[in-house]
Each structure stands twice: as structure tokens, then as C-alpha cells.
């Protein structure tokens, strides 16, 4: 019980979301795939946005979540359910591990499936570039140590020039195209860099 209070105190983040109840399977599917496509995460059902516990009937919520997983996620997202009894009611903890089968897509409407990633405390629709690159990055690979120096170089370049294309980075940071693309996707996923892909030539800016 104490662990749950401490978890709620952390507030919503890149790896945590609160839900009073699951009312829209299509909408929760976007959250589920965004966690699976990024670093994994948890949804606490029975917790309001302000962190107060309202409690739920876990069986009802599992039914709605299973519907979202099997009808609105492609491929279906793996989840683990844990029921936590609190003084205020039952909280259903939904644990979504980072997926090795990314990218997962969420059904927006008939014949319209889209990919989402987690950026800070929001589920954000991905660009085609990020979606494609998710398949290149094994879920088990940790990039933090490898990319620290190169990340810093990219951030310095963006501070100086404000917006740069993939080609700019390969030349200025002396990186291969593939390496630059992976680094930039990683930094987009971390919320450090923003991709603007509606332009004729996509470019990046600081978030």
C-alpha cells in the first residue's frame, strides 16, 4: 500500500499515467502502444489526474483493457495486471513492458492505424521516420553510455543553428547517416529534440 502512495506522489510522467476508469478502449490503446513503443510504463486505473484515489472494479477495467489490447492494438501489447487494495478502494496497476515487437499501432478509426510514442507525460503520434526507426533499435540495447558525447554535440549544434536537417548533422557532427538517424530518433523519444516532418525536407529543433 505504501509503495502505491509513493508511486502516485511521483505524478504522471514518461513512464506513469493515471486513469479514473477506462471508458474509451480506442483512446487507452494509444497510451498502451506509446508505452510499449518507448521504455515501457504503468497505468494506474482508479487514480484521478490530481493523484486522488477513487478505486475501481478491477474486473470491469480488465475487460475494457483486454478489448483495447486485442481490438485496437496491432500487434497486441503485452501487459501485467496487479490489483492493489487501498483504503479508498482498489487500484488496478497495468504494467506495460517495453516491447521487442515495436512499432505497435493503435486503431484510430476503420482502416486507420497509427503509431504512438511516449514523450514526457503524453502519448504522441510518431512520424514515419521515427516509426521506421523503432524497428531498427533492439529493445534490449541501452544507448545512454554510447551516445552521451554525440548527443551533447547534437544539442550544441541545435543551440547554435536552431534548426538542422539529417544531412546537416551527418556533416557537422561527422556521423554516418544511419548513426545520426538512430541518435536523433533516440533523442526524439527522450523528448530532447523535436522532429518537424511536415516540411519538404524534415528538420530538427530543440524541444
Automatic annotation (TrEMBL):
<dbReference type="Pfam" id="PF04326">
    <property type="entry name" value="SLFN_AlbA_2"/>
</dbReference>
<keyword id="KW-0067">ATP-binding</keyword>
<dbReference type="InterPro" id="IPR038461">
    <property type="entry name" value="Schlafen_AlbA_2_dom_sf"/>
</dbReference>
<dbReference type="GO" id="GO:0005524">
    <property type="term" value="F:ATP binding"/>
</dbReference>
<protein>
    <submittedName>
        <fullName>ATP-binding protein</fullName>
    </submittedName>
</protein>
<dbReference type="InterPro" id="IPR007421">
    <property type="entry name" value="Schlafen_AlbA_2_dom"/>
</dbReference>
<keyword id="KW-0547">Nucleotide-binding</keyword>
<feature type="domain" description="Schlafen AlbA-2">
    <location>
        <begin position="12"/>
        <end position="125"/>
    </location>
</feature>
